[in-house]
Amino acid sequence: MSDTKEYIGQFFEHSTFLNKAIPNREFEQCTFKNCDFSESQFISGKFIDCTFLNCNLSMVKLNHCQLNNIHFKECKLIGINFSACLDFLFEVRFENCVLDYASFARKKMGKTAFLNTSMKNVDLSESDLTKATFTHADLNGALFDRTILKEADLTTAINYSIDPEQNNIKKAKFSLHGVAGLLHKYDITIE
After folding, report:
1. Cβ neighbours of residue 188 under 8 Å, at least 6 residues apart?
2. Could you report the per-residue pLDDT of 104-161, keeping only the tens digit for each?
3. d(CA 70, CA 66)
4. How many CB atoms sit inside 10 A of residue 125's CB?
5. Is the pLDDT of residue 72 over 70?
């Protein structure tokens, strides 16, 4: 007999689960609005085709969780280690979010959209961001180390520092204004 609780097509609003352990939950086609899950632990959970609207998920632990086609909009996701999520079918999208201090180290995230999102001090080392879109993303202090950015669009991204010798940026798009972020390691002045 399984201890897993399943929720399909449900709408959760103003739910609060501060600093709680929430094991073995499966959510499919659910919407979470104005919920506070900060510092909670989702353990071995599944989220499939779900949307989070204006939720606080700061410091949430997602150990062994599956995130498949998850849309975060206007959410606070500070300090989340997405690297602890299962790689199987991992697919996320962020719009108008705060992702500061999150980690996506070693995640395969091709075509991921980061729209109008703060990504300060985010760890993107060894992640595969092929064809990802960073539309108006603030990447101040973001760590790019052996990151795959092939065909990624960073034309409107700001404050990034990416070493072209340490990262794969083949056919990635940058604005002329943002080129300084590719030359940062040379400690030169561009006027």
Report:
1. none
2. 999 999 999 999 999 999 999 999 999 999 999 999 999 999 999 999 999 999 999 9
3. 10
4. 18
5. yes
Find tokens 């996506």 and name the residue.
104
Q: Are 48 and 66 a contacting pair, CB within 8 Å?
A: yes
3-state SS, residue 107: coil
Dist CA 163 CA 124 (whole Å)? 13
Please give the single-letter amino acid code of residue 160: Y
Contacts 24+ apart (CB under 8 A), 13-19: none
Strands (E) in the chain, as ranges, are: 5-8, 11-13, 21-23, 25-28, 31-33, 41-43, 46-48, 51-53, 66-68, 70-73, 92-95, 113-115, 133-135, 153-154, 173-174
CA distance 107 to 52: 21
**Distance of CA 41 to CAs 22, 35, 38, 57, 141, Å?**
6, 15, 9, 10, 27
DSSP state for residue 101 in the 8-state scheme: T
CB-based contacts of 191, cutoff 8 Å, min separation 6: none
Question: What gap in Å lies between CA 16 and CA 189, rounded to an integer?
Answer: 49
